[in-house]
Every structure is written in structure tokens, then in C-alpha cells.
Amino acid sequence: MNTQPVILTGLRANNDLHIGNHFGALLPLIDMARTKSADYQINLFVPDLHSFTTPIDHAELQAQIVHNIRLFAAAGLPLDDPNIHIYRQSYVPAHSELTWILDCFTGFGEMSRMTQFKDKSAKLNEDRVSVGLFNYPVLMAADILLYGASYVPVGEDQSQHLEFTRNIAERLNNQFGELFTVPKPVKDQHTFFGKDQGLRIKDLVDPTKKMSKSDESAKGIIFLGDAPEEAARKIMGATTDSVGVVHYDPTNQPGISNLLTIHALLSGETIEAVAEHHDGDTSYGDLKKEVAEQVKDFLTDFQAKLTEVNDAQLLAKLEAGEAAMNLIADATLLRVQQAVGLRPKAA
Ligand code: TRP
Q1: Which domains are seen in the chain, by residue range?
Q2: Which of 140, 144, 152, 186 to mutate to test the pocket of ligand 1 (most atoms within 8 A of CB)?
Q3: pTM value?
Q4: Segment 74-91, tens digit of pLDDT
Q5: Could you tell me if the CB of 10 is within 6 A of ligand 1?
């Protein structure tokens, strides 16, 4: 039985990952896993059951799941660390079973107030708003509570779901005794993980918005799978301004500042160093060429690493993770089933 505190998070299943995700999410997560795995059990899973709470193309899903796990491996996620468990949610059936039980202790009103549900459902025709989308936070609570996770690194958009997880855990603990480990509150999570995730990459076409896959046009986004030449063209086409002089000034020169940010992230230099080096330059074209070249090299290198990912090793890692997680998850589920009267109490 593992007594180390658990850190747990979901790795996106089915969106195309881009360089904003790479520097803002993948690398920080991989770094966290590497530095904390000596003292914590690290659970990284693919929330595949969450991936069609809004409509998707199901013909693509299986390939996307595998592809995204390969991207994590190419970005440096260690596959040989026994304290880092990687698994697919749907391979651990207890997630679904616990969700049903938690559903029956969850208020319709409380789910209706979830901001993400309101935002996402507002974008869909009413008949496409699924009960699964409504229910999304309950499945997420099950993901966390099955493993007694204390630390859950999630973005701002997920903190309400984490609060809900704490509430439902406390609700059942109050009614049935100590069933669940209650995850730490959001502010403790920030202290633990460090709130600032560093530099943020913006959309190339509209540099006032962050680079985000939900954009209709892919012109402003550099995907990790983009052909290097095509990505270079996207940089050359990036929106700039009419100031005509390079300054790092995100408010007045968001496009140029974004190029400097990408430059800094790709070269591993600080934004200050890069900004100082280019400050006062009068050719936007030269800056773009330099960044385009860097992006091309970065993608060429990353895609070479991707082809080197050993699929057999990856699958073995997933299967080992899933076997280990089924044992832990089933033990939690049994305690809950006993508490609610679905199974006889242990003698
Ligand atoms: N909802 C999370 C996201 O969109 C993914 C996720 C699903 C998750 N279950 C989780 C994250 C449990 C942390 C813990 O990013």
C-alpha cells in the first residue's frame, strides 16, 4: 500500500496540442512530475470519458488518445519512473461506477451553476447539450477521490470543479464517516505548485488572446504536428503593429511582444535578455525571420523525438499503470459501496 501523498491530473485526450500547451502545460507538468516523484505518487491519466461530453468525431478518438500520450513522451515524460503512473480513465471502470454513486448525492442546482457548463452549453444547440457535459464535474470528482489525491494541478478554469470535489467529499464524509481524502483547497494548490506558470504565448493573428485550440482559424496557432515550413509561414504572417520599432510592450505592441516571448521560450533565454537584445530594431521582418527559423528547428527536433517514442514501451507503461490503478480504485469503490449499503460491511 502506497502511503505517499498523491498528485493527480488529467492529460488532455483529444485536442491538437500547440506550442502554447507545450510551454504552458506539458513542460511544467513534466518538470513537476520529475521533481516530485521521489516523495509523491504521481497519477497522470487521460480523461478519455470526458472527451466526448461535447460532440466529437469518434472515428478519430482512438488515434488521438494514443497520439497525445506520445506527445507527452516526446516532450520528456519519463516512462521508466515507477512512481509516475500513466493510465487511461476508461480502462479503470471504477471511475464510471463511483460517478453514478456521487451523482445521487449531487444537486441539480449545484451542477447548473458550474461556469464551464454554462459557457460550453451556451455554445451548443440545446439538443446537443448532453447530460455528460452537465455531469462532467462529478466524473472529475471521481477521478480525484478514487486515489485520495491531495494535490491536483489544474488551470483557473477548473478550480470550481476542484471546489465541488472538496464539497462532495466532505458531504459523504459527514454522512458516512471518513470515506475520502479531501483534496487541498485551491489556494494551497497554488502555493504547492507555484501559481505563476511563466510566459504565455498568444495567438499569432489576434495577439490580444491566448493561443487556444478552440479558435476557428488555425493560422494563429502553431501545432506540435505542423509541418515546420508551414509553421514558419505562420510566424511570417503574424500580426504586428505600425509602431515600426521593436519594444517588449504587451499592451501597446502585443504582436511583437508575442514574437519576443516565443523567441525567449524557444531559446531558453529570459524574456528580458531577448527583449534587450532586440530593443530598438526597426525591421519586423528580420525578427520574424529569426523566430520562424527557430520555430522550424524546434518542430523538426520535436517531431524527430516523436518518431523515436517506443510504442511498445508506452503501451506497457499504460497497462502497468492501469493494473495498479484498478487495485487502488476498486478498494476505494468497495468502501463507498459498503458505506451506501450496496455491499455488506466488512466484518
Ligand atoms: N477537466 C480537466 C481539464 O479540462 C481534465 C480532467 C479530468 C482532470 N479529470 C480530471 C484534471 C481530474 C484534474 C483532475 O483540464
Answers
A1: 6-198+310-340 (3.40.50.620), 228-306 (1.10.240.10)
A2: 140
A3: 0.93
A4: 999 999 999 999 999 999
A5: yes
